[in-house]
């Protein structure tokens, strides 16, 4: 369950939305920290046994960077070859807007990838994620370069 929040100047949170989708870029860093079996947790949920199930989490911070097709959310190209997916180190790459054709991974949507990494701090997770992002390329790739900066500023104070 993901809550989209707007935080007022005085720090008061206001809920804008609730989401519960595994494909959301907000969910993927959370899943990166899950050490327990997701399948077992889902099965326990269907049996009404979640309250009897131990869930184990990685204590490290996770951070995800969405890589989008240039022009997204407006008009964007599909069918561009993605290179560098095998050069991402320990980061995990969640594919959303991709397809495989003739053994090549191609863009096939606006939000194409979410590159997610773990670190002992937000700064370390950010560094690992962006290192992996820089290893991946396709024509007109776009990604934000400010993911995690506010959390790092809080971490440094």
UniProtKB/TrEMBL annotation:
Residues 61-152 form the Phosphoribosylglycinamide synthetase C-domain domain. This is Glycinamide ribonucleotide synthetase. InterPro entries: PRibGlycinamid_synth_ATP-grasp, PRibGlycinamide_synth, PRibGlycinamide_synth_C-dom, PRibGlycinamide_synth_C_sf, PRibGlycinamide_synth_CS, Rudment_hybrid_motif. It comes from Capitella teleta (Polychaete worm). GO terms for molecular function: ATP binding; phosphoribosylamine-glycine ligase activity. PROSITE patterns: GARS (PS00184). PANTHER family: PHOSPHORIBOSYLAMINE--GLYCINE LIGASE, PHOSPHORIBOSYLAMINE--GLYCINE LIGASE, CHLOROPLASTIC. Keywords: ATP-binding, Ligase, Nucleotide-binding, Purine biosynthesis. Belongs to the GARS family. GO terms for biological process: purine nucleobase biosynthetic process; purine nucleotide biosynthetic process. SMART domains: GARS_C. It comes from the Eukaryota.
């Amino acid at each position: 369950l993901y809550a989209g929040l707007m935080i007022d100047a005085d720090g008061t949170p206001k809920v804008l939305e609730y989401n519960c989708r595994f494909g959301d870029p907000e969910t993927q860093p959370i899943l990166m920290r899950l050490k327990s079996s997701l399948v077992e947790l889902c099965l326990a949920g269907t049996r009404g046994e979640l309250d009897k199930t131990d869930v184990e989490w990685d204590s490290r911070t996770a951070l995800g960077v969405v890589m989008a097709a240039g022009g997204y959310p407006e008009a964007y190209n599909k069918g561009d070859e993605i290179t560098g997916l095998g050069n991402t180190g320990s980061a995990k790459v969640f594919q959303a807007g991709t397809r495989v054709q003739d053994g090549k991974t191609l863009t096939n949507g606006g939000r194409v990838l979410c590159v997610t990494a773990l670190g002992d701090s937000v700064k370390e997770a950010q560094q690992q994620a962006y290192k992996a992002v820089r290893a991946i390329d396709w024509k007109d790739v776009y990604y934000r370069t400010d993911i995690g900066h506010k959390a790092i500023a809080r971490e440094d104070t």
